Amino acid sequence: MTSNAHSSRSRSLRNHPGAASVALAAIAVLLTGCSSSSDDTSDNPLDGDKASGGTVVVGSNNFAESILIADIYGEALKAKGVKVSYKPNIGSRETTYGLLKNGSITVLPEYNGSLLAYLDAKAEQKSLATVNAAAQAKLDPKLTLLESSPAEDKDSVTINAETAKKYNLTSESTLADLKDHAPELVLGGSPEFQTRQQGMVGLESVYGLKFKSFKALDAGGPLTQAALKKNTVQAADIFTTDPTITKEKFVVLQDPENLFGFANVTPLVYKSGLSAEGVAALNAVSAKLDTKTLLELDSQVQLESKDPLDVAKAWLKSAGLD
Prior knowledge:
Shape: globular
CATH superfamily of the largest domain: Periplasmic binding protein-like II
Strand content: 5-15%
Distance between the termini: 34 Å
Helix content: 25-40%
Structural class: alpha/beta
Strand order of the largest sheet: 7-6-8-5-9
Number of strands: 10
CATH topology of the largest domain: D-Maltodextrin-Binding Protein, domain 2
């Protein structure tokens, strides 16, 4: 992934269902210090003081998925006897990266390709290993990336249930499988998606996809979701862990050529603040967390209104990590 739609859009507030409520929750946190993990949360998520007594401070950006993953990280650390406090709903990468550098945060859920694009907008992203190596090389020397999970939250070409049924396409189908059908389909997405390499340009050059037409909507948000649901468009740019996929039985087509780059969930860590046991605990989480699982967990939080801390604890137990 180069300077694509995923890296250029803000990850601080997503167009997922529940983003507005998360934004309100962020304001509430700033005013009251409350959160889903309130028992171990500092009074102010923007407080710059470092944790004392060996406490690991787990931070999150102010969107629902980041909060959920932070709770997973924190509870996994607690299960190994690590003392944890939370600083949730902080804001965008521009804020959280600075707090990591000064040690105010010890651990933060990151997305490797998006982080690299932030650190070096011109960096090429050809493989998971090269992305992580390039990001590590650009990081502040006090910080490090731990092992990336298979779970990714990135752009995709997603089709609605009607289209999937018509052409016998499943979640195992690839973008190449759409080649013969694309001339019959309208593709929806942000206006920029029409002219980007990691958009319609690349879909044609890499996979040979030539769509009937393109409908300019929004970046994976409610306009795109509604158009796909109503069959105004039959395919659309939807982010891979958007709970709408579950709710509407959309089908995400696989991208074996990695046209849409890399967005693997990866712990970003203030090195001196985390023990070897803590590193092992977070790497164990990464080993078990894949995109399908993350989508299911996001759906519980954003569609079923479950507390992310409860969802985190339940998944860790089911994965044998509690």
